[in-house]
Amino acid sequence: MRVTIARRHFYFHPAEVEKAMNGVAPEPVTGGSVDIGGVRYPLMQVGAVITRQDRRDFNAGEVQRAMQALGFPLHAATSQ
């Protein structure tokens, strides 16, 4: 599926995202997050891993839309 992150087009299959995130230790979740392979990852961490771009180049909303399009369960940021 084609998704756009940081004005660049990427073609991902959900299995490719799962493979890329396999073995990656999740960072602490402080905002929105996504479940990939039974692990909850921050959206920005996932975006950086799958696109190999600097986190300053995109925002969490772009990654959220991409993960939603690919069918991954999303979690809103929790207020503390």
Describe this entry's structure for a reader.
The protein has helices spanning 14-21, 43-51, 60-69, and strands spanning 2-5, 8-11, 33-36, 39-42, 74-75. It is α+β, with helices and mostly antiparallel strands and 80 residues long. The chain has one domain. 24% of the residues are buried. The mean pLDDT is 94.
What distance separates the N and C termini?
35 Å
Question: Helical percent range?
Answer: 25-40%
Q: Order of helices and strands, N to C?
A: EEHEEHHE
Q: In order across it, which strands form the biggest sheet?
A: 4-3-5
How is the biggest beta sheet arranged? 3 strands, antiparallel
InterPro entries: SCO5918-like (IPR047719)
List the helices and strands and how they pair.
Elements: E1 2-5, E2 8-11, H1 14-21, E3 33-36, E4 39-42, H2 43-51, H3 60-69, E5 74-75
Antiparallel strand pairs: 1-2, 3-4, 3-5
Helix pairs in contact: 2-3
InterPro entries: SCO5918-like
Which features would summarize this protein structure in a list?
80 residues; alpha+beta; three-stranded antiparallel beta sheet; two-stranded antiparallel sheet; 3 helices; 5 strands; 34% helix; globular; SCO5918-like
What's a concise summary of this model?
The chain is α+β, with helices and mostly antiparallel strands and 80 residues long.
